[in-house]
Structures are given as C-alpha cells and as structure tokens.
C-alpha cells in the first residue's frame, strides 16, 4: 500500500530538479510514490525526470502541454494512489525523513492535514520559519500558513472536498488553503523544519501589475466560494479580517513596488476599492479592533487619505532600496 504520494510539477527547472528528485527517492518512508508532471518544459527537465523514472520504480512520469503550476498539480491528482498526498515544487527539496514524520503524525491523530515547519534556503545560508500550532478553523483562516508544500493531505478527504487549484493565477496556494478550511476535522503539526524553500531571486524586485493584481481575483473567488457554499455567515469576521490584512499589508507592499506610476496607482485603487466594496464596514471588524499588535494599529489608521500617504512613502522606500542595491553591484 502506498502511504504518501507526492505530486511534483516540473517546468524549466534543469539546475534544481536532480536535487529535488534525489531528496524524494531517498525518503525513509518506503511506501511512497512520486508523481512527476512535466508541464511542457523546453529545457532538459523532461529528460532528467524521465531518466529518474527509468531508474526508480517509485517515480511515475507524465507529460502535458504547458498550463501553469496549478494545472500541473490538478493534472497529477488523477494518478495519485497514496493514502495521503503532498506537493513539492521542483526547485525545492526535502529532508529524507519528512514524509515518514508527517505520515506518522497523520495516523496518530487521524488528521486531514499535517504541517511541518520550513527553511528559506539562500545560496549562502538558511533560516528557519516556525509557525504557530493553530487549531481553531477561523484562526487558521486569518493566520495560518497557506503554502501547500509543507503539508500532506488525506487523499480521500481532499478529493471529497472537490477543491482544486485555480488555474492561470498567482497566489493559488492561498485560495486552495482557504477553501479547504471549512471541511477540516483535524489539523496537526510536527516540529521539524523539513522542507527547503529555495530562494531563486531577491525579494526586492520589480513586480508586474498583472501578476500583483491576481490577488484580487483570488480574494474574489474565495469570497464567492464561501458565499455559494453557505460558509459565509460562520466565517464572515475571519474572512473580513483576512481580506483587510492581505489588502492593507502584504499585497499593499507588493503593489507599492510596481515601477510604472500609473499602473501602481491603478493597482492600489483597485485594491482598496475591493476591500470597501466587499466589506464596507471592515473598520468595525472585531478581530481588527480587539487584537493588540503594531500591524492592527497600522490597519486601524487607514483612511482614504492615509492610504495614499502610506502608498507614496512605501513606493519611495522601495525605489531607494533598489538604488542602494544597484550601487552595491
């Protein structure tokens, strides 16, 4: 019996793929299968993956036309036979005990999802990200880690939810994660930081407006899903806070990095517009008002006027960082 299946989407990752596949074929959990989906690679990734599939029986290799990361993940699901499944991006790699530890915890707790901590892997060093062990589903919605590759999911449970990845958008992990939350019965954690999230480029870079604006599509899709499936009433406060935190914090900073002034202004206007149109009374949110943190205090100061001031300040800071980096080079 296969205990864990791992779906690995592959697209033009020739310099990284061998390390990823080596980390998977050497897992201490022997009852494992690796479902490699070549999503139309144009480099040597397909050749590398096929060579590993020929060498290791546990690797299943499939090819498809390029459709993006989400499409490749969805495509791989049909070939999964494991009791649990996980996802690994093909430029990352994992510790050899990762899936044994996750599976053992899943069986111990009869879990729907089990999560591990993670390492941000740079060329010269790594740092470890330790997450909170959140159990409450509304807390998970507001503060949980939405990345999919540090987890395993009960396969039959996941298929029953019918939740899949949103094709052709960025931030697809956020949508996938939030849509699963209402269906959870048991969410577990292990302490080990078992996956290495490889940092391929600087976080300080020019963001295209089209990519950054995908978060608005994702948030709209999440809201509509909760509304149409009857979850909105129970999760309204949590979803409202999540919208507020994303649109006024992480997404806000990304939009301030858009180089073109007109595109930046348009993205920021669409962002604040979505918040007010979806949750016109967001400033009354009980979580926003009751929790004491610097982030919450900052969000409570947002008005149409301060929003413009903050966006101007963040944009200037970003351009200064770019200038300083350019001088160092």
From the structure above, extract its key features.
single chain; 329 residues; alpha/beta; 9-stranded mixed β-sheet
Low-confidence stretches: 202-207
Tell me, briefly, the overall form: globular
Record field, number of beta strands: 9
Question: Quick check: average pLDDT?
Answer: 94
Number of helices: 14
Order of helices and strands: EHEHEHEEHEEHEHHEHHHHHHH
The profile of the biggest β sheet is: 9 strands, mixed
Q: Which class of secondary structure composition applies to the elements?
A: alpha/beta
Estimate what percentage of residues fall within beta strands.
Answer: 15-25%
- As a whole number of angstroms, the C-alpha radius of gyration is 21 Å
Q: Helix proportion of residues, in percent?
A: 40-55%
Terminal Cα separation, in Å? 54 Å
